[in-house]
Specification:
about 160 residues; alpha+beta; four-stranded antiparallel beta sheet; about 35% helix
């Protein structure tokens, strides 16, 4: 078992565009069906794997290209240290003053390490000043607890 780190920083309106955050259905819609439905399917097939926008389900990060993996760690503690650095770097820009507090950040990292230790995933998001959103995730791999059928993106 190991853990992959993912981070995304972008416009909140992009994050809110739910269709690019969902993988395409397993089977395409029938050819004789609704053209709008077929077009949404084609868009999901093209957009979901190509974008670094966080998926709705944290485990689905594993279906993204290996190029979006920001780090890989065998030990939950090492993954937690990376998470702590990600949060500390952007904390001064967090829109919520409470989210900027060092004890709160330390508690989030501690909870993340505990969750990774039993095979869970971690996903955190923060609004930054303006219309920017920051998302950071740690995903357990080989196997993932919620989607054990997903292969490691790094092979």
């Amino acid at each position: 078992m190991h853990h992959h780190g993912y981070a995304w920083l972008g416009e909140k309106k992009t994050f809110d565009h739910e269709s690019i955050r969902r993988p395409p259905p397993e089977h395409p819609p029938p050819m004789e069906g609704d053209e709008a439905l077929r077009e949404r399917y084609r868009q999901a097939v093209a957009d979901f794997p190509a974008t670094g926008v966080p998926p709705i389900q944290t485990a689905h990060w594993l279906t993204k290209p290996a190029s979006v993996v920001r780090g890989t760690w065998e030990e939950p503690k090492d993954a937690g240290e990376w998470l702590g650095r990600q949060l500390a770097e952007l904390a001064p820009r967090f829109a919520s003053g409470a989210d900027r507090q060092a004890p709160r950040l330390a508690l989030a990292v501690k909870a993340a390490v505990e969750r990774l230790a039993w095979g869970g995933d971690v996903s955190l998001g923060h609004y930054l000043s303006g219309t920017v959103f920051h998302s950071v995730a740690l995903v357990t791999c080989s196997p993932n607890r919620s989607c054990p059928e997903l292969p490691c993106p790094l092979g």
